[in-house]
Amino acid sequence: MKILQMFVLASIICFTACGANSIKSQVEENEQLPATIAAPKESQVIHITQEQFKQQIFDYAKNTQKFVYEGGEMPCIVDFYATWCGPCKRLAPIMDDLSWEYRGKVKFYKIDTDKNRELSSVFQIRSIPTLMYVNKKGELLAVEAGLPSREQLIKVIEEYLIK
């Protein structure tokens, strides 16, 4: 009986010690993980309201005859979207990614059409997503409905907005 107790006790001590070492090595490995994982890129897309649109992009109440860009020489893309819209949800990560790549060169804005109905009416937004493109000269190039690919957006940015 004493031999059996000693065997059980030795097994418990060995199992605990081996388990502690493997747990310790797992903790040490996990502590090293954050150093190897890159920090996520923070989106540069700016969510704005109708009033902010008037201040930063175009005051359509003041300038009823002509588009006058309020954003200086920085071109922009404005995404008219809705939170329930499937294609808008697919466009969001593309806009986030491009906003990071073109930070300091192009401003990216998002406007919720459900919360800013007057603005949607002024620009006759009938389907979403709809994108508005303004070049660095402050010219309104287009207001286009639909879901562009990442490659299409890059082409517009490179050839028409920052050139």
What would you say this structure looks like, in words?
This protein is of the alpha/beta class and 163 residues long. It has 2 domains: 1-37; 46-161, Glutaredoxin (3-Layer(aba) Sandwich), CATH 3.40.30.10. Helix content is 47%, strand content 15%. The protein is built from 5 helices and 5 strands. A 5-stranded mixed beta sheet has the order 1-3-2-4-5, with helices on one face. The longest helix has 35 residues, at 2-36. The protein is globular, with a radius of gyration of 28 Å. It starts with a helix and ends with a helix. Mean pLDDT is 82; it is low at 1-39.
**Overall body shape:** globular
User: Based on the structure given, which CATH architecture of the largest domain is correct?
Assistant: 3-Layer(aba) Sandwich
Strands, total number: 5
Instruction: Determine and state the CATH class of the largest domain.
Output: Alpha Beta
What structural category do the secondary elements indicate?
alpha/beta
Number of helices: 5
